[in-house]
Amino acid sequence: MDREDAQPLALALASTIRHDGAGGVADDLADVAGLREWMGEQDELGAPDATEELRAEVVRIREAVRALFARAVSPAPPSPADAHRLLPVGEALARLNAAAAPEPVVPELSWPADGTPSVHLSAVHPGTDPGVRLVAQLARAAADFLAGPQRARLRACTAPRCVRYYVQTHGRQEWCRASCGNRARVARHARRQRERTAGGQAGTGGGQAGAGGKGIAASGGRTTSSS
Ligand SMILES: [Zn+2]
């Protein structure tokens, strides 16, 4: 599992809100087909029937997760995708805990002859509705993530237009992925160019506010000389 997108389940859920590559925000869970596809990509999840009801429940968990992710990265700014409509923290916590409650689980120790001991959680009531089980599993995954060591390395990507959260894999990682780093460097370079131009031609005032989109196509191999 060395794929670039192999990530904790809670992060995978949060990441279903992403930039669409054209300056907007895409939602992979915008419809039932999207939910079905996303569930199919998550190795840890079962595959209950994708219904509108289940989609709404998963989106409610995602709202709670993103609100708590915003708290986790604070005082750094949260993802701009939903920064202005975040659930209050208390409500987010209550929502996660309520979602996990219908599926009580017990720890089970196993220790294969040729391996190391491990604990996995086993359902107390195996007959739980698969949709309820999936939502509970997402809520537990979020709780584990937030209470675990990865929370401290959670970041909101600051590249132009990116709205992703990511877990830093090394101390100086500034962006969620290489393409975001390229975009951020191009934007920084363009900003410096404008500042330089504006400085040399006082009075003509750049006036290119909001630039940045054009930089993507020109990113190949460009590097910014540090000043
Ligand atoms: Zn990014």
Describe the structure.
The chain is of the alpha+beta class and 227 residues long. It contains 6 helices and 6 strands, in the order H-E-E-H-H-H-E-E-H-E-E-H. Strand 5 and strand 6 (165-167) form a beta hairpin. Zinc ion binds at residues 157, 159, 162, 164, 175-177, 180.
Bound molecules: zinc ion
Kindly report the average pLDDT value: 86
As residue ranges, the low-confidence spans are 1-5, 203-227
Indicate the proportion of strand residues.
5-15%
What's the alpha carbon Rg, rounded to whole Å?
21 Å
Computed structural class? alpha+beta
Report the end-to-end length measured between terminal Cα atoms: 40 Å
Q: What can be said about the biggest beta sheet?
A: 2 strands, antiparallel
**Apparent shape:** elongated
Q: How many DSSP helices?
A: 6
Number of strands: 6
Major sheet: arrangement of strands? 1-2
Helix share of residues?
Answer: 40-55%
How many domains comprise the coordinates? 2
List the helices and strands and how they pair.
Elements: H1 9-14, E1 17-19, E2 25-27, H2 32-41, H3 52-73, H4 89-100, E3 105-110, E4 118-123, H5 130-147, E5 154-156, E6 165-167, H6 178-200
Antiparallel strand pairs: 1-2, 3-4, 5-6
The structure holds zinc ion.
Short description:
With 227 residues, this protein is of the alpha+beta class. The chain has six helices and six strands. The chain folds into two domains: 132 residues, no CATH class; 39 residues.
